[in-house]
Amino acid sequence: MGSWAYFDPEYETLSIRINPPQVSVDNSSCKECTLVKVDSMNKPGILLEVVQILTDLDLIITKAYISSDGGWFMDVFHVTDQQGQKISDSRTIDYIEKALGPKGHTSGISKTSPAKKVGVNSMDDYTSVELIGRDRPGLLSEISAVLANLHINVVAAEVWTHNRRIACVLYINDDTTNRVVDDPSRLSAIEEQLKNILCGCGSNDDENVAHTSFKMGSIHVDRRLHQLLFADGDYEGTFLEKEPDCSIKPKVIIERCEEKDYYVVNVKCKDRPKLMFDIVCTLTDMQYVVFHAAISSDGPNASQEYFIRHMDRCTLDMEAEKEKVTKCLEAAIRRRTSEGLSLELRAKDRVGLLSEVTRVLRENGLSVTRAGVTTVGEQAMSVFYVSDASGNPVDAKTIEELRKEIGHTMRLNVKKAPENAKALEARGWAKTSFFFGSLLEKFRA
């Protein structure tokens, strides 16, 4: 009688333990930036993991060189902090070395993922809610009001809108016990009311495109939002953002590299934080492997080149697949792009705060295009990117009305996104997404 071959469960990580990742954080080789060098055994998804760790620390990747053709993975990243300075904080450097090193997330030995968490508490205290549906003015306010009426506290949230679609990840708990919401009947009631809100336009089509789900445990919020919108097909159709400046529109060109049987993806667009993450995340979720890459920034513009091949070893022979990859990358870049006005608010956390703020925005005729909310201790911090109901810039009179209405209960800071290279250089990178990633203490605990 034959027998099954025996596989040692330790064999999977044997080569990694024999050849552990080598990580170097170099502050001496370059005047303008810190170099992060990673040499490691190659494995599926490793590039995304490395980029994810760096961007979760709110580091800006100004240049990168990637090579993973064969069994080894070699990266060099040029990074700065949000102000364009080298990484000087010893705790951040120590975290990078540990996270990318032999016992970190990229080694394959650690079974925990570098998922973002909320605030300073255990994820056991929160339930995450995922929403996807057709966007409309005031929808976030309606969602917030429903949760407040159900005695649900929103501890943190991130909201993206793109191409008339909205995707949200909300972290919630019970507003009296501050504990996770896990009672099936209560979750069912929440789901029913949220779905009614998402389908509130009365169209039968909305019932097929609205989606609500609950998860216990941590997820990577940015990646999940990309996945929700990608699965929802937000890359299809005509993009609705107004783009008077052609430099804002991303340009994606895909060409064949016959010699190595790669396809070469060239992306040129306006530079911004987390751009590389958004592109690599999308390629990874579309089952493409990056073998080589070169990333650079020239003032306000970014140029990124990726040599890719599908995981099943097929290349992009079909024009339809090339067109889909092009559309998906354009959508991934646009989802996080927020032109115009942003409102930064800080206040003492209280039940119903998000509902109150979004109600005021709605009553003043403002539409939220992207939002992030988080809570640290007793402080609630929020950023809302807003336009008027028609998608036009917000006028000064409306801003003053907002200051009068909410300025006495919370700190309101109004910012306009920098429009050119001089503004970027004068102010450093505008910090457009502290929502989850910049809470560094969660990494250092």
UniProtKB/TrEMBL annotation:
The keyword Kinase does not apply. GO terms for molecular function: amino acid binding. Residues 35-114, 128-208, 342-419 form the ACT domain. InterPro entries: ACR1-12, ACT-like_dom_sf, ACT_dom. Keywords: Repeat. Gene3D superfamilies: 3.30.70.260. Coiled coil: none annotated. Pfam families: ACT. It comes from the Eukaryota. Binds amino acids. PANTHER family: ACT DOMAIN-CONTAINING PROTEIN ACR3, ACT DOMAIN-CONTAINING PROTEIN ACR4-RELATED. This is ACT domain-containing protein ACR.
